[in-house]
Design brief:
This protein has 21 helices and 7 strands. The strands form 2 sheets. The protein has a 5-stranded antiparallel β-sheet. A two-stranded antiparallel sheet has the order 6-7.
Length: 535
């Protein structure tokens, strides 16, 4: 038996014989074992210290890693020091936390620590966190053990697989074991680990594979296998990036469609170029903010209340705009544009006066936080997923209203031929009021969705008014399906262009494309049909 193994055995026996005392004595005995010169013996003593069930151990291990663990020269007690500006140390008893006063620099001697011992101590800290009730803490602990690169801890986390129930922690353990095997001294085990890593997207696994590829001292077979696995990983990453880009594009497109649907209805039925549409979106976002202020204890349900509330608030404001201004300007699109632009400025200033010019943040409910992990390396955020589904739901409800209700029938009749609809007994004034209120209400609902993606401010609507008009014109004025298809298409195109051209240039390119498209098809993707369409 080697001298190290003998000394380690004696050390464990000494600690074990002394451990029948109180918890404080157990810590003191384990700390005394650290007062040796051999770093190997310090590793053994630190492992014994970390096995003790006392919260004080975490403080001691942190101090040891930071080089703040000393022995007091006059008494030999192990202490934690805090350096003073004028020189000297403020002492704290390591085992009990008791304040021991101040000494000069020569009044305490440092318990030395090197990088290898530091890595071992960080691994021991992580091991203690493996029993935490919070799964996120256990995942962090496994990753810390992996980064510590201490092979003595491999068997410990391997044994955790039998008792661990949380899926994320099990994945972290699996990745850690792969990293350990990639660094194994057994070539066959290492080669098997490389082959098994070809579909693993964990950053630590990829870093280890890269280190194998660049290590010229390793056999060519291992380096080629690692390079082949990295190629397969990059292909997988590229596919996942493509899927994420499409999803983000559809998410952006659903927001554009949601913001443009209301505008499509009013523009198609009434021929009104409503420049205040963006401010109606803004009012919906501020309605969400106010509801959360009034219901601080019901944040989880705030959006469910905000949707109908925003629809009512924005709808009523829209009806007031229609009755007070727009009804006098029918048939004069340029004047409606100028008038509604003035209304947009009034609404912005009113919001600045009431809420101040500063942006307001809306709290995201717990059920919309986080992300859904579809596969390792592929996840989608819940808030964008819910907004995408919400936009489709609003579109479906609006489609039912337009196709299956009397209001929808009248709206379609007025859209196709206003004079003929009036001759058939349809009250155009009533249709105009309800249509503008419906379009404004949907704009308010879009504001609720946008409040979950960006800060709420007086200029919120200005960011979407131009995009909304582009969607309406591109899809076909007054056509709901055209608005949906145009919104989703432009969103996806934007997201594909952004990595190459940047966000601003991407929007300019989309605008140029729409201008060229309109030159060929002035009525958009889905033009209105019928004898009155030319009018």
């Amino acid at each position: 038996m080697s001298s190290f193994k003998v000394s380690a055995l004696i050390l464990f026996l000494i600690i074990g014989l002394k451990s029948f005392g109180s918890p404080g004595e157990d810590i003191s005995n384990a700390l005394d074992a650290l007062k040796v010169k051999s770093f190997a013996q310090k590793e053994v003593a630190a492992s014994a210290l970390a096995d003790l069930k006392d919260r004080r151990i975490d403080t001691i291990l942190s101090a040891f890693i930071e080089g703040k663990l000393y022995t007091k020269k006059d008494s030999g007690e192990v202490v934690i020091v805090s350096p003073l500006k004028g020189g000297g140390f403020e002492l704290e008893h390591a085992a009990t936390g008791e304040h021991l006063g101040v000494v000069g620099r020569r009044g305490a001697k440092k318990i030395s620590v090197n990088n290898k011992l530091r890595r071992h101590l960080k691994g021991l800290q992580a091991v203690r966190r493996l029993n935490d009730n919070n799964p996120a803490e256990r995942v962090a602990a496994v990753e810390a053990i992996m980064k510590a690169d201490d092979k003595s801890l491999q068997s410990l986390i391997a044994s955790r697989q039998d008792t661990e129930k949380n899926e994320k922690v099990l994945i972290a353990i699996k990745n850690a074991l792969v990293v350990f095997d990639l660094d194994s001294s057994d070539p066959l085990k290492r080669l098997a680990a490389i082959g098994a890593s070809s579909s693993n997207l964990d950053s630590n696994v990829r870093a280890k594979l890269n280190s194998i590829v660049t290590n010229k001292d390793l056999p060519r077979e291992l380096r080629d296998a690692a390079e082949n696995s990295l190629t397969k990983i990059e292909d997988r990453v590229s596919r996942f990036r493509l899927i994420e880009t499409i999803f983000f594009g559809l998410s952006l497109g659903s927001i554009l469609a949601l913001a443009a649907i209301g505008l499509s209805i009013t523009f198609g039925v009434m021929g009104v170029i409503n420049m205040a549409h963006g401010e109606l979106i803004m009012l919906g976002a501020y309605t969400t903010y106010v509801i959360q202020l009034l219901m601080p204890d019901l944040i989880e349900y705030s959006l469910l209340i905000a949707v109908p509330a925003a629809f009512i608030v924005a709808g009523l404001v829209g009806i007031c705009i229609e009755r007070s201004v727009i009804r006098f300007l029918y048939g004069r699109p340029l004047e409606t544009l100028l008038a509604t632009f003035g209304i947009s400025l009034i609404l912005q200033q009113a919001v600045r006066t009431i809420f101040s010019p500063l942006n307001r943040s809306v709290i995201t409910p717990e059920w919309m936080s986080g992300s859904l992990e579809i596969a390792q390396g592929l996840s989608i955020t819940y808030n964008r997923l819910y907004i995408f589904v919400f936009a489709l739901l609003v579109f479906a409800v609006l489609l039912v209203i337009m196709q299956k209700t009397r209001l929808g029938l009248e709206v379609r009749a007025v859209t196709q031929n206003r004079a003929m609809a009036q001759a058939m007994g349809i009250r155009n004034t009533r249709v105009d009021i309800l249509t503008f209120g419906l379009g404004a209400g949907i704009a308010g609902v879009a504001g609720v969705a946008l409040s979950q993606l960006t800060n709420v401010g007086p200029n919120l609507g200005q960011s979407y008014i131009v995009d909304s008009f582009m969607v309406v014109v591109f899809g076909g004025v007054g056509n709901l399906w055209g608005t949906l298809v145009a919104g989703l298409s432009l969103g996806v195109v934007n997201k594909f262009l952004e990595p190459f051209a940047g966000a601003v240039v991407a929007k300019i390119l989309v605008l140029i494309f729409i201008i060229l498209f309109i030159q060929k098809r002035p009525r958009g993707l889905f033009p209105q049909k019928g004898r009155a369409a030319d009018n």
